[in-house]
Design goal:
The structure holds two protein chains of two kinds.
Chain A: E1 2-8, H1 11-26, E2 30-36, H2 42-53, E3 59-65, H3 70-76, E4 82-86, H4 95-103, E5 112-116, E6 133-139, H5 146-149, H6 151-155, E7 159-163, H7 175-185, E8 190-193, H8 202-212
Parallel strand pairs in A: 2-5, 2-6, 3-4, 3-5, 6-7, 7-8
Chain B: H1 3-20, E1 25-34, H2 41-51, E2 61-67, E3 70-73, E4 79-80, E5 97-101, E6 105-113
Parallel strand pairs in B: 1-2
Antiparallel strand pairs in B: 1-6, 3-4, 3-5
Classes of the chains: A alpha/beta, B alpha+beta.
């Protein structure tokens, strides 16, 4: 006997992701999923964001890594609430892990939850977490041709950050070529070239982030 | 790369559907997998064989129907099947493709042994 199923295998994850988003919405929290290769500067970017917004905006962080808590410790030093999730070899975060992460954050006092996904330009793009916006970071040393190699990741981003632009003079990074590639894949996507180290371009990102935070009690 | 997690989800659905149908044994699972879904058949099969041990799905045949990637060029509206991850339009050479098909990943149907059903 044949039984028609026609079920999306990712449906369970998507349902949990929707529940996560509802939870964030109920607390007027903006959820941001940050995806990038290992070494692109995700943690530094998060620390810089906390430093810039820390005074009037409360940021919680969910740190995803295969192993260790080194990133969470750095975030904790900024006095930001942080949860470390070790995937134990898993190549991405999934919605269940975020649900558990949210359980361990003080949601009633947060404005933003930054989720640092596992460093990988493939799998994280396939799993919804409940985020409101997807940010993809590409660092200058990785090269301007990454969108051609990992189109799926760049096609689903809401924001693309080009990090480490302070070392642009030492690399053959063609910003226009990069912008053209991204514009083809994802028309209208916002691109923020910046350096956390020098601060160049960083306020464009934080201004945008602030503009996205829902007002409490609205 | 994430086949282990998705194979577990797949198996959860299969077990639930088989149970609802009162089946004692699942003979086959018919999957539809898009070329751009980022999933490797052999890898799903590997985890499937492992995870189904001691369940009513053990030994079931996993059938894959692959859906080729289909793109539409935003510049000239040409529809084309790209080489893997080559999103360039063959007609106008622009890199402005939009995915129309190839991201699918679902269970079309399962085949179960219904010998005991209704008894």
């Amino acid at each position: 006997m044949q039984i028609k199923v026609l079920k999306d295998i990712m449906a369970a994850n998507s349902a949990t992701a929707e529940a996560n988003q509802a939870r964030l919405d109920a607390n007027s929290i903006l959820g941001i999923n940050i995806m990038a290769s290992p070494g692109s500067g995700k943690t530094t970017f998060i620390l810089g964001t906390i430093d810039s917004l820390g005074q009037d905006t409360c940021i919680g962080v969910i740190e995803g890594d295969l192993a260790s808590s080194v990133d969470a410790e750095k975030v904790a030093q900024k006095n930001a609430p942080v949860v470390q999730i070790n995937t134990g070899g898993g190549c991405h975060l999934d919605a269940n892990q975020i649900s558990a992460g949210l359980d361990n954050l003080p949601l009633d006092s947060l404005d933003v939850v930054l989720i640092e996904n596992v460093g990988n330009l493939v799998c994280p793009s396939e799993f919804k977490l409940g985020e409101h916006k997807r940010v993809v970071i590409l660092s200058v040393p990785e090269g301007d041709d990454k969108p051609y190699k990992y189109p799926g990741m760049f096609a689903t981003a809401d924001i693309i950050v080009i990090s480490k632009i302070d070392i642009m003079p030492y690399f053959d990074f063609d910003l226009q070529k990069f912008k053209n590639a991204v514009a083809g894949l994802n028309p209208g996507v916002r691109i923020f070239p910046l350096s956390v180290r020098t601060g160049e371009g960083f306020s464009d990102w934080t201004d945008w982030l602030k503009s996205q935070i829902p007002q409490r009690g609205m | 790369m994430h086949e282990m997690a998705v194979t577990q989800s797949l198996l959860d659905i299969v077990l639930k559907e088989a149970q609802q149908a009162g089946a004692k044994k699942v003979d086959a699972v018919n999957l539809v997998v898009g070329e751009l879904a980022g999933l490797v058949d052999d890898s799903i099969q590997f985890y499937f064989d492992f995870m189904t041990k001691d369940t009513i799905v053990e030994g079931a045949k996993l059938n894959f129907r692959r859906v080729p990637a289909l793109m539409k060029c935003r510049a000239c509206a040409e529809e084309f099947s790209p080489a893997p991850d080559e999103w360039v339009c063959p007609k106008c050479s622009q890199w402005q493709a939009e995915v129309i098909a190839g991201k699918e990943f679902y269970i079309d149907s399962i085949e179960v042994d219904d010998a005991d059903k209704g008894t």
